[in-house]
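Weekly modeling sync, notes
Attendees: S.R. (lead), two postdocs, one rotation student

Agenda item 3: backlog of single-chain predictions. S.R. asked that every request posted to the team notebook include the full sequence so nobody has to chase files. The rotation student volunteered to paste the first one in as an example of the format we agreed on. Action items at the bottom.

Example entry:
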Amino acid sequence: MIPRHPDDISASWLTEALQAAAPGVAVDDVAVERVVDATNVNATIAVRHDAPDRLPNRLFVKLPPLDPQRRQRLDWASMGAREVRFYREMATDIGLQAPAAFVAEVDDASGEFVLVLEHLGEAGTRLPDLVGGLDPALLADAVRDLAELHARFEDPSARARSAAWLAPSGRTSDYGARLLREGIDSGARLGAAFVAVAERYIADRDLLQDAWELGPATVLHGDAHIGNVFVDERVDPARLGFYDFGLMTIGSPMRDVSYLIAMTLSPADRRSTERALIDEYLDARTALGAAPIDPDDAWFWHRLQAAYTVVASCQSIVARPTDSPGRRAFSAAFVDRAEQAVDDLDTVDAIERFAAG
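Predicted structure, as returned to the notebook:
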């Protein structure tokens, strides 16, 4: 039975669940250290067991949201199922560094799921400065890693063999448009380009979706922003790792590349490195046998993909009373990155050019 709350993770349940990853392990005690109920439940647990050479003593647990409203409005079931399948079937063979997974279970009937992963931020891993941004030096290897992922699944037959459970992003939900409308109407101070992109998305989501699909289709991480990456210092040189694979999808490779660049670097670092990083990505994917992308096309697509940062910011525009100071700082920096990206890249002009054909 899949636990619905971190407190339901008993020593006996965890002992049984861990047998595939650590055969013979016996868990003596589980203590919940921290619980955050957000898009999903994220919890840290301390575990006393008899296999210190195979299993850490602190683990990260991910479960569906507890809050009834979040359970109603978020697509948590399909996100959870995707992430479970990623760790079960794809994580070790895609070219991206990801957290070690010890338990990945889903109930197909109810959608309830549980993930037990390595706890990032210790044992040679480091979480980034969510406000200041990443060291740009980490991005060169990261875009090459994305090129490996994209090249591997650009062939439809490869996707059919190994990623048939993934599909293109749906177009039916108005969740982002509703939150953008609320954010604009709240009186939040937002840049003119950000508001213009948001209004265009609210008025014609299909137009932006069409723009974001330019380019060859492949498997995407789908949500590679600064809150979903970590630095793995167990390798030399240090390597950027990715987590939170619940929004994996099929789409244009520039979605991953553009979003990573725009939403992990400080605006100043992005401005000084984005062209070189895109060139690095293009060279890497060509070397790996993927279809070449013209650099001018890639730059235009980058300008269009910047519009997605606005939609991705929909939950960050208005601070909630329950938001911690750290969450407020993260949200403010997130929106600022999006504002400056669409302004610097003249994304409104790119959208109009695309709309005009």
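Discussion: group reviewed the output briefly. The chain has 13 helices and ten strands.
Action items: rotation student to repeat for the remaining queue; S.R. to check formatting next week.
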